[in-house]
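thought: user wants a sequence for this fold. calling inverse folding tool.
action: design(structure=
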């Protein structure tokens, strides 16, 4: 019987896996750890950083602010400090809207193929 392995069930992700998730170099993740003390990966064997789901959510928020919205690190840090929930809600909303847009584009392609 084949095991249906779901990556979402992993408890920790290596720094390389997280770098791939966000398409950023691992050096950037290490730098963000210094700039944002809320990112606290555990150190695994051979001192490899292991990120929890909470760490990945924090990185997702920082990625959204810095890479998607082009905020400076200091501005992103200030926004998170001042209004973490607002920044997170805004980031979540942007993700949902992006997903809706992708779904609508897919539906349009299917409709165009029918015509």
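)
observation: tool returned 115 residues.
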């Amino acid at each position: 019987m084949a095991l249906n392995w779901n990556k979402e069930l992993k408890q920790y992700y290596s720094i390389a896996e997280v770098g791939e998730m966000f398409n950023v170099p691992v050096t950037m993740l290490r730098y963000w750890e210094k700039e944002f003390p809320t990112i606290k990966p555990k150190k695994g064997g051979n001192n490899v950083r292991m990120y929890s789901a909470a760490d990945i959510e924090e990185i997702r928020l920082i990625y959204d602010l810095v890479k998607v919205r082009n905020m400076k690190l200091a501005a992103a840090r200030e926004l998170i400090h001042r209004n973490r929930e607002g920044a997170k809600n805004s980031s979540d909303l942007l993700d949902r809207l992006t997903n809706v847009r992708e779904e609508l584009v897919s539906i349009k392609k299917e409709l165009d193929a029918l015509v």
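thought: summarizing for user.
answer: Here is the designed sequence. Strands lie at 13-14, 42-43, 49-51.
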